[in-house]
Design a protein that fits this description.
The structure is a homodimer of 193-residue chains. Chain A has 193 residues and is mostly helical. Helices cover 75% and strands 0% of the residues of chain A. The interface between A and B is large, with 39 and 39 residues. Chain A binds a DNA duplex (18 and 18 nucleotides) through α1 and α3.
DNA sequence: GTCTATATCGAGATAGAC
DNA sequence: GTCTATCTCGATATAGAC
């Protein structure tokens, strides 16, 4: 950690993270990553054995990114309701990217779920979703919704994914804004019971 | 039409339709289609100029399939509310496929929206979504919801997409059933105003 | 119309010099 | 640790015999 080698490794992961998001995993080649980093293709194999290993590192990186985002939410307010609203508004903070490339979790997941041969994808696939889900459940617990926690958490994730997918396919910013707003109303209604 | 050549063309489109759904467009090769149809790779170019042309034919085919489904809904009942409920329940009629491969429209769309080079994808991409949306709006008109029609239609599509994505990624049949049920309740509430 | 053989390219991956 | 050169394979696509 902190060595020069790790720095290059990190640059590869960062570039792959960005490219897997904007072009998709299968449509990103080693040449693409090489072009973006300036690191020659052959060098990748000093840090990773296969392309799937890079994918695993990218998934880990995204787990880390979302952990940081959630930590931010926690530090901004201690009110679980406020925290959930902040999560629901997250797509608006990345509006341009969301409209262009969809959700970094959802789009990657729906791409990898079709990969039948490999096994790593199936294992790590839901890592970020799981992280978000348990964080949501945590907030719901504090709101006295522990019995319905799992269901509500999945509902929230599903609604966010659907909104982002339609907003992405139609490149529809007004829809994104209105739907996030509706989602807030739904949160208020659902959690007032 | 009806010639032997068209029959082979149709077999290619059918196989590609199935494979694009189960493996994804980019992960389906001419060899895969050849294996499934028994028609040699080289022969494809007698019917299609490029792989994208096959994709265009598949999208057309899916438009046709969904037109037939909607026609079925219309013939089953003349009540617009019943028709919308039938649409919402559609994922349950293809439960096994939905849990394994997601939505044939949504998953293909989110794959192709990342394709930047080509232009055909951007053009035809929303063809099936557009078909469903205008059909939904049609039913909402009859229910006196013409003012909110476009918004409600997008909401319904977004909710279905989100439900299917989560059900697919987690291979979660109970969630799919419960969520479709919730969707029916939402339809009843939203359209009773 | 149908099929085989082949061209061409870019992908992931390896070997080995420095 | 870093880079170049190269291997192998499978992809789309083409040519041309039958």
């Amino acid at each position: 950690m902190g060595t020069k080698g790790s720095a290059n490794r990190q640059r590869i992961v960062d570039a792959a993270d960005h490219l897997f998001y904007s072009r998709g995993y299968n449509q990103t080649s080693f040449s693409d990553i090489s072009d973006e980093t300036g690191i020659p293709r052959g060098n990748f194999y000093y840090y990773f054995k296969t392309k799937e290993d890079i994918l695993a590192a990218v998934v880990d990186a995204r787990v880390g990114e979302f952990k940081a985002v959630l930590k931010n939410c926690e530090e901004a307010t201690s009110d679980p309701m406020q925290r959930l609203h902040a999560l629901a508004q997250l797509p608006l903070q990345h509006e341009t990217q969301v409209l262009q490339y969809g959700c970094p979790i959802g789009s990657l997941s729906s791409e990898l779920v079709k990969e039948q041969d490999t096994e790593i994808s199936q294992v790590r696939l839901t890592a970020v979703f799981d992280l978000l889900k348990s964080w949501i459940i945590e907030q719901l617990d504090k709101l006295g919704q522990s019995s319905r926690g799992d269901d509500i958490a999945k509902d929230l994730l599903a609604r966010m994914q659907g909104i982002i997918l339609i907003a992405n396919v139609y490149n529809d910013a007004p829809f994104l804004h209105r739907s996030v707003n509706d989602l807030q109303s739904w949160l208020n209604q659902t959690l007032s019971n």
